[in-house]
Design a protein that fits this description.
Layout lengths: L5 E10 L2 E8 L4 E8 L5 E4 L12 E11 L2 E14 L8 E8 L1 E2 L9 E4 L7 E4 L1 H6 L18 H11 L3 E4 L3 H7 L6 E5 L19 E6 L14 E4 L7 E2 L1 E6 L5 E2 L5 H7 L3 E3 L6 E3 L1 H14 L1 H10 L4 E2 L11 E6 L5 E6 L1 H4 E3 L6 E4 L1 E3 L5 E3 L1 H4 L2 E6 L7 E6 L4
Parallel strand pairs: 3-9, 4-7, 18-26, 19-25
Antiparallel strand pairs: 1-2, 1-13, 2-3, 2-6, 4-9, 5-6, 5-10, 6-7, 6-8, 10-11, 12-13, 12-27, 14-28, 15-18, 16-17, 16-21, 19-26, 20-24, 21-22, 23-24, 27-28
Helix pairs in contact: 5-6
Length: 405
């Protein structure tokens, strides 16, 4: 059977700007809206959504996972069951690992049901509790039903993470990787998105075309109606995340400023000075990159820097902005063949109009405070973005100007 290519509708209304797609879980095809996240690899859903005990396809395991995101964390058992995506779920139905968030900090997934990580195996670690469960006389020695009662506090989850770290660790194949391994889907996917925060300018944000897009499973460049122009190809330099090398940043009308490379002390843990992350609804930049942008905005017009700083903490009236006066911001990354590859972020995406409520605006560029820049949705919103893992050692990210809706 030839690998499947699916165009899957996605929306940002469930997860406060992050995009979700619907999957079907188990023998009863329980629907779940999961965040599509290239910054992680785990497939997890809230335990209350899915009745694992009633799923004839479910198999319990001795595995547990514990994951901490910037928005919160969770822990819980790992099971295997059938997972499918798309209107005709049978096209992509395979047995895959699924974590259930038995204990979870509130708000971690917004109003979404879970998360589907699209990164590589190294970010999908689980802990094998067979020895511990046997010692506790849990028969059979499996983690579902969940034998712990932790509560939903961050402190409890961190303490449990310390306990798990003493167990044997295993890397599990993520759902997307398993699709490729079983020749169900090619090792490529793509995003068509227009917003990084929910547009609240209509009476029904869920039906606003700005808040909806597409996830292309198993394909990319062949979807020619979703982009206009040639692709710019950025090299993925490691598969810890979708690691990239950010070379420089330039605000239009100002000089280009080189981005600092990682110092040796961070090279082992962070690998590179930037990553591309579909699960981040802003640009979280290393201090040197952020400061270069703010200094350049101040050079172009001091009122720009003042407005940007104010609107990064609370919304400001959109009526005070004339985006036609604001400059483009260009990020220069290492290209597929080592040459510089320039990607431009327009004012209409680094500013999010009608954010939080109609008539308000938020500035979507922040100082991450760390050594790595996270290039999230405000950059991707300018491009039809293809994560092509069929190329080179770790893949290539291809960016083509996005077609208007």
């Amino acid at each position: 059977m030839a690998p499947t290519t699916l165009r899957v509708p996605i929306t940002n209304v469930y997860a406060d700007g992050d995009y979700t797609a619907q999957i079907q879980i188990g023998s009863s095809a329980t629907p779940a809206n999961v965040i599509l996240d290239t910054g992680s690899s785990t497939l997890a859903v809230s335990e209350g959504l899915y009745a694992a005990h009633a799923d004839s396809a479910m198999q319990a395991t001795a595995l547990a996972q514990d994951v901490i995101y910037g928005t919160g964390g969770w822990t819980g058992p790992v099971v295997t069951t059938t997972i499918a995506m798309g209107a005709n779920g049978q096209e992509t139905s395979i047995d895959a690992y699924l974590a259930l968030t038995a204990d979870q900090e509130s708000g971690g997934f917004g109003n979404a049901d879970g998360i589907l990580g699209l990164a590589f195996n190294a970010l999908n670690s689980a802990y094998n509790l067979t020895t511990y469960l046997t010692q506790q006389s849990i028969d059979p020695p499996v983690t579902y039903p969940w034998p712990f009662n932790l509560g939903n506090s961050g402190a409890a989850l961190k303490q449990f993470a310390t306990f798990l770290s003493r167990m044997r660790e295993e890397d599990l194949p993520p759902y997307f990787t398993a699709l490729e391994d079983q020749n169900v889907s090619r090792n490529i996917f793509a995003f068509y998105t227009l917003r990084s925060m929910v547009a609240m300018g209509t009476n029904d944000p869920a039906t606003d075309p700005l808040n909806n897009g597409y996830f292309i499973l198993g394909g990319g460049p062949e979807q020619t109606d979703l982009y206009a122009g040639d692709f710019v190809n950025v090299d993925v330099v490691d598969d810890l995340w979708y690691n990239t090398n950010l070379l420089a940043v330039q605000v239009a009308g100002c000089k280009q400023v080189e981005a600092k490379p990682l110092s040796k002390q961070y090279a082992r843990t962070n690998i590179s000075n930037s990553i591309v992350d579909s699960g981040t609804n802003s640009l979280y930049l290393a201090p040197d990159v952020y400061n270069a942008i703010m200094s350049s905005l101040n050079q172009v017009n001091p009122s720009f820097a003042q407005a940007a700083q104010q609107a990064s903490t609370q919304p400001i009236p959109a009526s005070g902005l004339n985006l036609a006066d604001w400059p483009d911001i260009t990020f220069v990354l290492q290209g597929e063949n080592g040459q510089p590859a320039s990607l431009t972020c327009a004012p209409s995406t680094y500013w999010q109009l009608d954010a939080l409520q109609a008539g308000q605006a938020m500035f979507a560029i922040f100082n991450a405070g760390g050594v790595q820049s996270i290039l999230g949705l405000p950059l991707l919103n300018n491009y039809y973005t293809v994560f092509d893992r069929t190329q080179d050692a770790y893949g290539v990210i291809r960016f083509a100007p996005i077609a208007a809706p």
